[in-house]
Amino acid sequence: MSEEIDPEAKKVPQNQPNNPLHGVKLAEIVEFLVDEYGWERLGQIIQINCFTSNPSVGSSLKFLRRTAWARNKVEKLYLDTKRK
Fold it and tell me: Domains in the chain, please, with CATH?
C-alpha cells in the first residue's frame, strides 16, 4: 500500500514579512556593499581577509557562506546602509 502525500504539507512558507533579507541573495549584498564603499573601505569596516587580501566577490561569497559570524556582520552592514 502506498500512502498519498499531501503536496500542501511539503510547501515551505514563502512570505516572510518580518525578514528584511528575504529574497535578497548574498551576492547582491556583497555587490551592493562594494559599490557603496569599495573594497578598501569595506575591509576597514569589516576586518576580514576576504575584503582586504586580493578581494573578489567570488572569494567573499565562499568565505561568507561558511562563516556565520562574518555573514551576520555583512548582513547587518547591508541593512544599516540601506536604511540611511
Answer: 31-84 (1.10.720.30)
